[in-house]
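Example A, followed by Example B.
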Amino acid sequence: MIELRHLRYFRVLAETLHFGKAAELLHISQPPLSRQIALLEEALGVKLFDRSRRRVELTEAGRRFYLDTGAVFSAFEQAKRNALATARGDAGELSVGFMMSTAYSITPTVTRRYAAHYPQVNLKLAETLPLDLAEDIYSGNKDVAIMYRPQDCTGLETITIFREPMMVVLPPGHRLRGRDVIDPAELAGEIFIVTPKRIAPALHDMIVSYCLQHGVTPNVGLEINMQQSIVNLVGEGMGIAIVPRSMRNMRLSTTTFKPLKNAPIIEVVAVWKNDNHNPCIATFVESAEQAWRDVEAAWSEEERC
């Protein structure tokens, strides 16, 4: 069987054309080198060197073999670099699921930063309902999820990558459109459009708890899965909604976003299974944390200005 060391012996001899010098460079004695070259020629079925007492020369077959083995060693070195990059999480494949609402906040920032810093990673993104994201992580369909914190984190790792206050979004001509800040008590009697608890329990419970704490029992008129659909329906005059601040980025002319008094803060987290050993997870999480720090710094700069 031809081994990589046989090819290395051959190439050093081909470059020195001297058994003694080649053996010295390879840190072996000359007789074992001669035997290995003979075994290589026997395995190939061709003569690679013309030998005489005074000189060693490559045959035509030897010259061709030298050229071709150069490609072998180049490929081997690239394979080593690829293996090292993959082990560090600098290369490989990563499947990420995200809630559509985060497309208006942190997901574009995170994925742009990650793609720029780790171009060798095949990043696969898929929009998924919060209901399904945790299950995708448990089942292995996704490596990482960008979502609201799951209620049950058994077997999962999570890290916060985004925080933002909730705001109330009002339809055209609403009586509260002129207010700078909305007291939640003023929302009594309004028709609420909310996300069903089974779809996004963390978000649903936050909104309901916030209202109850301020003496308001939400009058739920519509339950809608997607935050952007909720905002659109508010714009159509179907009710009001409490949504993450980033939903303002939809920039609908038919809606008005207003800050809430003592507004609750919603967290977006990166979630992965604790026994998923894909090294790209660590680099993705690191990028997500840095992206969040960059966003916070930008917000602080805007406030100073």
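Example B, a separate protein, is given below in the same form.
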Amino acid sequence: MTAADPPRRATSLVVRLILAAAAWLLLLLAVGGIVLALAFRGAVEEEFSYRLDAILKTIVASIEVVPGGGFAMSRPLGDPRFDRLYSGWYWQVTQPDGRQLRSRSLWDSSIPVEPGGPDMQVRRAEGPNQEKLLVVERDVEFPGQQGAAHVLVASDLREVSGGVQRFELLLMLALGTLAFGMIVAIVIQVRYGLRPLRQMLADLRSVREGAAARLSGRYPSEIAPLADGMNDVLDKDSELIERARTHVGNLAHALKTPLAVVSAEVQGNADRTVLTKQVQLMRRLIEHHLGRARASAGTGRLGLKTPVRSVAEAVRAVLAKIYQERGLEVDVDIPPGAMFRGHREDLEEIFGNLMENACKWAIRRVRVSAQQAQDNLLIRVEDDGPGISAERQAELLRRGRRLDEKSPGWGLGLAIVSDLVHLNGGELAFSKSELGGLCVDVALPSR
């Protein structure tokens, strides 16, 4: 995949939600249907086994012991199914000596006997016609007989399978109808639930086409934070664009006068000194506005943290080489845990300009300190230079707050520092230092 290839789209969110919900629903209905079918079959077979046991008790009541120790039926059962050959209904009595008394439906066949007891036993067996039988049996002791006789009654399981199969078919139809209805409900629910996302997409198209400046729709609480985040990004982009326009306008306005002077000089007898002065002025104006534009573009990004002490130490090391001949003492008093919420370059620009300015005006000493308050990072840069009056301090603060074109005054550095501080949501203040010179306080949000 090359950079020119469009990004591959994942499966639709609607399809994912519907497939996941439908799969889980079908699994639950299948498991529930199987459990219900097995429970119904077990209940039917249990009830059928009790019916067979009732017939077994009737057979026991009809058996009498004949002279010689044999068994005989004293009266017929009255159920023709036991008289029809291989009808699927059988009874069998096995005497203690192994002789058997059987129903006519068994003819000359027999059902294998398994050891049992006086309680009812239920099992499955194969009949004389290879049919599947449900067998109910128990051992019964008769008066005058030594040992217990084994009596069983068996019936073809098809007697109950037909009803069970009809129930299973009805259950499948009911569960299938329920599944279809619930899947339709899931589709409606998912599409209705995701309607705000489609509305957000339509609003984004309006923003892209210029019909709106931001997302203005009413969104549910789950996606409202997403809309607010998008609006923050749109507002930030709009702010950056407006700043860029302002910088371009200011630069164009500031260059008009120098360009007019250069044009006039070129048309007449050009004065090299005048031209050099105007070129230097234009270069300074360009650097001024480029510095402010860079400061505006580099702020406002989330998730960044910069250690304050390492930046201040790095700036001190550079300034120590620059002002080595003057023997300035630059003290840095910053706790290791102090963090700036923003780009390292922004903090380097702030420290670099403030500390360079302090070194420029200091006599012997510059002090740099910082502390992490609850909601703010407080930075202070002081020097023991001549300082400035309160009126001049107010003028510096006023100029620092303005973004339109002004003569640099205290220089380009403080203008850029002022822009960086305010673009990062902080405040800049000037006062008289305890060392005797200027004290510059910077408060930057730490959250």
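On Example B: Residues 399-411 have pLDDT under 50 and may be disordered.
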